[in-house]
Amino acid sequence: MDTQQLPDNVLTTQLKKVVNWARRSSLWPLPFATACCGIELMATASSRYDLARFGAEAMRFSPRQSDLLIVAGRVTIKMMPVLQHIYQQMTEPKWVISMGACASTGGVFDAYATVQGIDQFMPVDVYVPGCPPRPETLIEGIMALQRIIDQEGLPPSGLRRPLKLAVEPSYTPAAQPVPLTVGGQSLRDSAVHGALRNRVGDLTASR
């Protein structure tokens, strides 16, 4: 069949590419948020960042309807059996994003009750660094996962090796501490310090 004779509203492609496109554009995340990373996860779905642009806004709290597990926050030893059970109930193929330092390494909670990285108990495909990571960093992690799905398609059946991708932060932290100003003048100025001391003295005397 000559494809040049087809009308303009007909598109030819491969079934594999259509399936990969549909799957990467319809990820259904299951949020397992336990700490401050969960707030950034909520912000990712808000109107400012709009996770719906990438087809991953359908948050599902049922593991049988999800294929992307986002672990956001610290996980304790008592939580780990529940998290493993949720992961086992998710449909294949499934992926896992470790969001934040606590989920990836335990973060500042170097204690006996905190799991020092969920990758000790389940495969992790994408590590999103930060404490907590910004919504843009989480979106970059989801997009990295979508690129893998689009290129490789369905993973082989059986025991799957995790991708272990790490997202690099795309922003530069500002210099700390940020200088404060009063009336356009820096607080480090001696004149400003003197004016503040006089004002505090006047307020104290008036009482």
List the helices and strands and how they pair.
Elements: H1 15-24, E1 29-33, H2 37-44, E2 68-72, H3 80-89, E3 95-99, H4 101-105, E4 126-128, H5 135-152, E5 165-166, E6 181-182, E7 185-186, H6 190-206
Helix pairs in contact: 1-5, 2-5
Structure description:
With 207 residues, this protein is of the alpha/beta class. The protein has six helices and seven strands. Strands 1-2-3-4-5 form a five-stranded parallel β-sheet. Strands 6-7 form a two-stranded antiparallel sheet. Strand 1, helix 2 (37-44) and strand 2 form a beta-alpha-beta unit. Helix 2 packs across helix 5. It is extended and about 90 Å long. The termini are far apart.
Features:
two-stranded antiparallel ribbon, alpha/beta, 7 strands, five-stranded parallel β-sheet
C-alpha end-to-end distance: 95 Å
For the secondary structure, the number of strands is 7
Beta content comes to: 5-15%
C-alpha Rg, in Å? 25 Å
Helix content: 25-40%
How would you summarize what this structure contains?
The protein contains six helices and seven strands. By secondary structure, it is of the alpha/beta class. Helix 1 runs antiparallel to helix 5 (135-152) and helix 2 (37-44) crosses helix 5.
